[in-house]
Amino acid sequence: MNTNEAITNEVLSHHLTAFGNNDLAEILKDYTEESQVWTPNGPLKGLAAISQFFADYFLTIPTGSAFTMKQLTVSHQVGYVAWASDSAIAQIPMGTDTFFLEGDKIIVHTVADYRIMK
């Protein structure tokens, strides 16, 4: 594993742990004001928009929800995860995220999921 992959793995581990804990402050440490999250509803830029995105997501997947990591792949400064989740609010049989890093920060993050509301 090269240095870039080690950093990417470290950032993804931090991000996924913070997400599982619904810890918004910790998640935001992985982003900068220049970071973007690309969603099916359009791109979000900056910490305020990213913060709101995750706050909304936490309503759908609160801490303690079932979560299955289907795939985690890292190559250089890119990480990809495929996952599934089930909560009292929604079933998500498939979700994907791709993370593009510069150094130890996520600069672009794509996210999409197939969501069945309960």
TrEMBL record:
Pfam families: SnoaL_2. Residues 14-107 form the SnoaL-like domain. SUPFAM superfamilies: NTF2-like. InterPro entries: NTF2-like_dom_sf, SnoaL-like. This is SnoaL-like domain-containing protein. It comes from Spirosoma endophyticum.
